[in-house]
Each structure stands twice: as structure tokens, then as C-alpha cells.
Amino acid sequence: MNQLVKKVAIITGGGYGIGKKIALRYGEAGAKVAIAARSVEPMRETCAELEKAGAEAIWIQADVSKEADCARMVEETIKRFGRIDILVNNAGIAGPTKRITDMALAEWQEVLDIDLTGAWLASRAAIPQMDRQRSGNILMISSGAGRRGYPLRSPYAASKWAMIGLTQTLAGEWGARGIRVNCICPGAIEGDRIERVMRARAESLGQPYEEIKQNFLSQAALHRMATEDEVARVALFLVSEASSGVTGQTINVDCGSIMN
């Protein structure tokens, strides 16, 4: 449980869901954790859980789609902990469930600004410190929608596909400087978020919710959804020394929904 002792991790969108589980896993493994997000109360609660478990943690209110916020996120982390070893680009929004002809440009742009440009901005802000250290790990949280097209979710799918390309590009740019960059594609994950997604899909298609849910489950070889903690365990592996020879790679955590 000491894989990340003396390491400092920034986790965007770390107040709830997958981001929170990753934060807790990293804290258990000995990391000092900085959580960044727009909503303050979930971050407070996550930091309280981390501190109760004996981990050092801070929260930073930030919108990753804003350049200045990403710069401040990095500055505050360095000021408190002195270094940055890990950046998890987890912040994202689901966006609309619509055909593109029913979608406003602003809806498209908001998803790309947060899900894709936010990961680029946060990485750009953190890399100079990692470069000075000659070491670091960047982890992108993409999606199964980054592996195959996702009808009615065009901005979400486009941004998640692009995160895989960003992963490979940054890995190639910075590997010689000791920085590894990898990606996780979670599939349908048990919890409130996927419930909202399925209900929105059912409403948009005019199909029963149970039919939509069964379609999600039937796609998986294990005939179930993955859990947030299953994603978090892979997230721990990819930033630990156990994966020291792994970079530029994307791993699906989806119970066998997509096998490539």
C-alpha cells in the first residue's frame, strides 16, 4: 500500500465519481493529493476522507477549460507540496444527448473545452515541473466512447477519441525526459452518472429505460458494469513503478465491452 509514498498527485474532477475513487486510492498508497474542480463541497468531503485516512490533501477550485485556472492549480500544488509527480486528467462533462442537427454550437464547444482542451491545458501547466524533476506521470481518463462511435453523443465521443491521440503524442514528446503518459477508457460505470446517461438516451430515442440498460449490460463479456474502484485500481497501477515500462498506452476498464 506504499506504492506512491513521497509522490504528489493532482486529480482534476476529484470530488466525486471516478476521480474521488482515484484520489482515495492514491492517498491510501501514500501520495499527497491535490483535488481540483469547479464544485467546492464535493472536494471538501473528499479531502476530509483523505485526511481521516492519514493522507495529506488540499482542494483547489478550478475550471480546467480556463488557462489561468490550470496555471494556478499547478502553482498552488507546488507551493504546498513542492513538486508534482502525477496528473490525472479526469475532469469532464457528459454533454448533450442529441443528433448533431439538434445541437447548438455552444453545446458542442462546451464539451470539447472541458473534456479535451482542459486535459491539454492541465498537462501543459504541469509538464514544466515534471520536466525539471525528469520524472512524472500523466493519466488521461477517456471513455469507451473514445474507442468507437457513440450516436447522439458526438462532442463527447470526439473529445474522448482525441484524448487517446493526445496521450500518444505527449508520450512521444516527453518520454526522453522521464515523463510517462497513459490513458484509461472506462466503459459504463455503476453509479448515478450512467443512470442519467441511460435515462437521457431512453428519452431521446423514445425507448424504455430498461431496454437501454439491458443493451449496456449485454455488450459486456462479464455481463455487468465496471465499478469506480476497478478503474481506480488500474489508475494506481499506471502511475506506479509496477508499470515503469508502460507509456503511450490505453487500457479499457469496461468488463469486456470493447476488446481492442
Task: Describe it.
The protein is an alpha/beta fold and 260 residues long. The chain has a single domain (8-189, 227-253), classed as Rossmann fold (3-Layer(aba) Sandwich), CATH 3.40.50. Helix content is 48%, strand content 15%. The chain contains 8 helices and 7 strands; from the N terminus they run βαβαβαβαβαβαααβ. The chain has helices at residues 17-28, 40-52, 67-81, 105-133, 154-174, 192-205, 209-218, 228-239, and strands at residues 8-12, 32-37, 57-61, 86-89, 136-141, 179-186, 250-253. A 7-stranded parallel β-sheet has the order 3-2-1-4-5-6-7, with helices on both faces. Strand 1, helix 1 (17-28) and strand 2 (32-37) form a beta-alpha-beta unit. Helix 1 crosses helix 8 (228-239) and helix 6 crosses helix 7. The chain is globular, with a radius of gyration of 18 Å.
Q: What is the CA-CA span between the terminal residues?
A: 30 Å
**Which stretches of 5+ consecutive residues score pLDDT under 50?**
none
**Count the strands?**
7
CATH-level-4 superfamily name: NAD(P)-binding Rossmann-like Domain
Look at the structure and give the mean pLDDT: 94
Give the total of domains: 1
Helix/strand-derived category reads: alpha/beta
